[in-house]
């Protein structure tokens, strides 16, 4: 039995993983630089021999962690990002095996309460603009009755960026995709709670604008409490 425990399950790469790996390699090698535009979904699909849905999923994942950005009428471009940070996001060095949803949500909450407090103290005008832009996109999706999990997380990520702590931001980027999978599967951000979440987001943003760190932390704690309780009863 002891010998058997030394074996690990073989993880098969999906087409999405392989597409991400190729894009990663092109960025690390310098072939793709910040501001460069990716070929269209159709061209990538033809070249790689996979369906456009795989291309779309890979791009969405890279957008979520901030490596790519879809610009209206411009296509998908490479964001400016430190190579060391990008390597950490896309490597397996800090891979979480069999993630405990409650532990992930609890850890995320601790980091977010710290980052929102720091954001209130350190934010710049451009940070406020980025947070407000993320909130506008979230509201737009909710208004159109579209899935808004990604936009919700982007709002929280922009707050972490406004805290100007690169370690917190990187750690959030590592654990958010795992949390997001369960959010989507369990419909944690269902339409019945969206209006409430929008109001909470506005309150958090206003506290950051007012440079009130204690109030921002309080609002964030209240905002995250419902999901924390859900994770305790459902996945612990």
Short characterization:
This protein is globular. A two-stranded antiparallel sheet has the order 1-2. Strand 1 (68-71) and strand 2 (75-78) form a beta hairpin.
Structure commentary:
- The chain folds into two domains: 15-87, Arc Repressor Mutant, subunit A (Orthogonal Bundle), CATH 1.10.10.10; 97-235, Four Helix Bundle (Hemerythrin (Met), subunit A) (Up-down Bundle).
- It has ten helices and two strands.
- The protein has helices at 15-28, 41-48, 52-64, 83-90, 101-122, 125-143, 149-162, 166-186, 191-209, 213-235; strands at 68-71, 75-78.
- Strands 1-2 form a two-stranded antiparallel sheet.
- The protein is globular.
Q: State the fourth-level CATH superfamily of the largest domain.
A: GntR ligand-binding domain-like
CATH class division of the largest domain:
Mainly Alpha
How are strands sequenced across the largest beta sheet?
A: 1-2
- What's the number of domains? 2
CATH architecture tag of the largest domain: Up-down Bundle
Structural class: mainly alpha
Number of strands: 2
Helix content: 55-70%
Q: What amount of the residues lies in strands?
A: under 5%
Query: Mean pLDDT across all residues, rounded?
Result: 81
Task: From the alpha carbons, calculate the radius of gyration and give it in angstroms.
Answer: 19 Å
